[in-house]
């Protein structure tokens, strides 16, 4: 009985310990007490709940989820739904967390908060936005600022990834997080200058907020600012300021931030700046994109962009198999995406397999008609690179949705003109003009007003026909233009010019519509024009020339000074008594008296003697025969020692006596133009 009574008493003491440790935040000690309680009563539901909470607080999410799954009968979904869903969320089992939340019988505020986070991770931004709006509307506590920050993050994600124009939420940007999210939304809309100002404000707010805490160091502030600076660098990159962006990116990497997602994005952006240059740096940076946990930190589109750049880097570094492997994997994940097939085609072109690349692109265009236009543009580019301009034109004309576009018409006309196929070029103009006529008729219910693009095409067609001597064909276009604007004198003049060769009578009739010379006279102050700076200069110059001509004609005035011819410089060794060599202008080998270089001279002396010896006789270098010569290095076998204060240079380091002369001779030979024997 005493032992049985001791159990409840001990449990009560342990619960007091658990409560005290929980209030102090010492969850490790609390966990020990909870385990002792469970030894007394292993089916204590409250103790099991406390154990799960302690494990979560200590970051042991896997172990906490294990406890929940082991005691499913005691820890039902009603009891511990939030803790289970939170563990699954932190273990990146997002789909499982969503199912756990949705299966809970009661949707508490905690579950709603977690539901919003889960939807954001799943990139279901519309549902996430609705969830946070509901939370902000129906809750009032100290976490309102965090909810508004999350709401602004959802809007920024919609603007960036879904290209949705964000609505004004009316959020007061009092914190640097709200400013940062607002800047991200502006980047998604392409408002880069406004976004940069927001980021500068966010940086200022962040410094103010963190500097108030005395425990925060400058390094801590810089680490917190890293994500803001990273976004600033991204804006610089988009604006074309790649050097500034690269410098800022590298500064962030040197700080070694703990956010692997931030490092991966910065490394990827540096790789895109490097392109096919500085590939060794890119190969170093690509390792940062492979860090553990990156896939849980970035969105699907960010991860996809990183994989595309890996494939391109493999192509630039001539890793053909790796490039094919990565692009094939990307194509299997996103069959409708253009980039994987374009990378594969580019790799084939690098391997000089252009026909195979075109075939690959054609297959993709047939399978995905929605993306056929962009693929066909690439095919046309490949054909042009191969010199098949006519085939490229055929491919471009097969893109029906682009046939009438001014850019396409201009490209086709230029290419056909290059191939001197004027008929096909005119046909391109005709088809585009007919398309606009039909489109205008369908839009205006039979009325026939011409759009500016339509009129511009007609004018270009007329000018092209006139340029290539097709005046008869140009007349109808010019008449159409004049009909639309009878006051257009330029068009009327072109029309008269065209009719003058075809129907002179018609040209005379039309010329009556030209304005009179009186109405066309320009009110110009001739004196002011002549006295202007440019006109004065031209007139003076012209007058000077006229005066010279008059002098030449009349034979009066001073005779123009003749330029003295400078005497040519004579060679230093010139002798006036000796007749110059008549063949001196010919190269030495082409002269009649050239007998070739004498080979074998000094052949017997090559290779003889010690290293550093010259062709000079040994008797001249013998110190024993010259009384005045200074002491030299000791002879082999002699016991004489060289003094430490001696100025004699050892033979191996001494210049050979004949070296300067030899060098001079070589230089002289080079000056003569003879080829050396190197």
The low-confidence runs, each spanning 5 or more residues with pLDDT under 50, are 1-6, 539-545, 613-678
The best one-word shape is extended
> How many whole angstroms does the radius of gyration measure?
45 Å
Largest sheet report = none
Would you count the extended β strands for me?
0
CATH architecture of the domain at 8-106: Alpha Horseshoe
Distance N to C terminus:
112 Å
**Mean pLDDT metric:** 79
CATH level-3 fold name of the domain at 8-106: Serine Threonine Protein Phosphatase 5, Tetratricopeptide repeat
CATH class of the domain at 8-106: Mainly Alpha
How much helix, percentage-wise, in residues?
55-70%
Strand percentage lies at: under 5%
Class by alpha and beta content: mainly alpha
Total number of helices: 33
At the fourth level of CATH, the homologous superfamily of the domain at 8-106 is: Tetratricopeptide repeat domain
Describe the structure.
The structure is a single chain. The chain is mainly α and 678 residues long. Among the domains are: 8-106, Serine Threonine Protein Phosphatase 5, Tetratricopeptide repeat, CATH 1.25.40; 436-513, Serine Threonine Protein Phosphatase 5, Tetratricopeptide repeat. The protein contains 33 helices and no strands. It has helices at residues 2-24, 27-40, 45-57, 61-70, 77-90, 94-103, 109-121, 125-138, 144-161, 176-189, 192-211, 218-238, 242-254, 260-274, 279-285, 294-297, 300-316, 320-333, 338-350, 354-367, 372-385, 389-397, 406-418, 422-444, 452-467, 471-484, 489-502, 504-511, 517-520, 526-530, 533-554, 618-621, 659-672.
């Amino acid at each position: 009985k005493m032992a049985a009574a001791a159990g409840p008493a001990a449990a009560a003491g342990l619960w007091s310990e658990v409560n005290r440790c929980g209030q102090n935040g010492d969850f490790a000690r609390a966990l020990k007490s909870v385990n002792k309680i469970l030894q007394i009563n292993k089916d204590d539901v409250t103790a099991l709940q406390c154990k799960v909470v302690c494990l979560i607080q200590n970051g042991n999410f896997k172990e906490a989820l294990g406890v929940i799954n082991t005691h499913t009968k005691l820890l039902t979904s009603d009891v511990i739904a939030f803790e289970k869903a939170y563990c699954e969320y932190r273990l990146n089992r997002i789909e499982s967390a969503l199912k756990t939340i949705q299966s809970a019988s009661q949707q508490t505020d905690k579950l709603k908060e977690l539901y919003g986070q889960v939807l954001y991770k799943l990139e279901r931004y519309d549902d996430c936005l609705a969830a946070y709006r509901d939370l902000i509307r129906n809750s009032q506590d100290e976490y309102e600022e965090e909810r508004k920050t999350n709401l602004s993050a959802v809007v920024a994600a919609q603007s960036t990834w879904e290209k949705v124009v964000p609505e004004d939420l009316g959020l007061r940007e009092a914190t640097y997080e709200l400013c940062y999210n607002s800047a991200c939304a502006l980047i998604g809309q392409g408002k880069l200058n406004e976004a940069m100002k927001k980021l500068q404000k966010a940086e200022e707010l962040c410094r103010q907020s963190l500097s108030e805490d005395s425990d925060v160091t400058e390094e801590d502030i810089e680490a917190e600012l890293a994500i803001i600076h990273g976004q600033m660098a991204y804006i610089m990159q988009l604006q074309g300021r790649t050097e500034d962006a690269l410098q800022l990116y590298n500064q962030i990497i040197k700080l070694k931030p703990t956010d692997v997602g931030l490092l991966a994005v910065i490394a990827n952006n540096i790789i895109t700046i490097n392109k096919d240059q500085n590939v060794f740096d890119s190969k170093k940076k690509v390792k940062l994109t492979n860090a553990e946990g990156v896939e849980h930190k970035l969105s699907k589109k960010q991860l996809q962009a990183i994989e595309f750049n890996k494939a391109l880097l493999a192509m630039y570094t001539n890793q053909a198999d790796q490039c094919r492997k990565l692009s094939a994997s990307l194509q299997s994940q996103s069959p409708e995406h253009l980039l994987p097939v374009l990378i594969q085609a580019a790799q084939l072109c690098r391997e000089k397999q252009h026909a195979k690349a075109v075939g690959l692109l054609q297959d993709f265009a047939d399978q995905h008609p929605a993306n056929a236009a962009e693929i066909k543009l690439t095919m046309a580019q490949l054909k042009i690179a191969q010199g098949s301009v006519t085939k490229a034109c055929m491919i471009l004309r097969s893109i029906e949705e682009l046939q009438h576009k001014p850019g396409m018409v201009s490209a086709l006309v230029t290419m056909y003109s290059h191939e001197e196929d004027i008929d096909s070029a005119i046909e391109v103009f005709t088809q585009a003009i007919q398309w606009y006529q039909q489109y205008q008729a369908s839009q205006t219910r039979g009325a026939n007003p011409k759009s500016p693009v339509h009129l511009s095409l007609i004018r270009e067609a007329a000018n092209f026909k006139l340029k290539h001597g097709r005046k008869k064909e140009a007349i109808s276009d010019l008449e159409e233009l004049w009909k639309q604007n009878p006051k257009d004198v330029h068009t009327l003049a072109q029309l008269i010019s065209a009719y003058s060769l075809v129907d002179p009578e018609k040209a005379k009739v039309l010329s009556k519509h030209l304005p009179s010379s009186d109405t066309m006279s320009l009110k110009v102050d001739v004196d002011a024009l002549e006295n202007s700076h440019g006109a004065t200069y031209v007139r003076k110059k012209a007058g000077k020339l006229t005066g010279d001509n008059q002098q030449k004609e009349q034979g009066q005035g001073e005779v123009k000074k003749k330029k003295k011819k400078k005497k040519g410089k004579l060679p230093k060794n010139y002798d006036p008594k000796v007749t110059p060599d008549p063949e001196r202008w010919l190269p030495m080998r082409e002269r009649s008296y050239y007998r070739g270089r004498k080979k074998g001279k000094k052949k017997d002396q090559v290779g003889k003697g010690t290293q550093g010896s010259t062709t000079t006789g040994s008797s001249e270098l013998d110190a024993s025969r010259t009384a005045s010569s200074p002491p030299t290095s000791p002879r082999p076998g002699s016991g004489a020692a060289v003094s430490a204060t001696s100025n004699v240079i050892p033979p191996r380091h001494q210049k050979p006596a004949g070296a300067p002369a030899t060098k001079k001779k070589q230089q002289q030979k080079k000056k003569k133009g003879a080829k050396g024997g190197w």
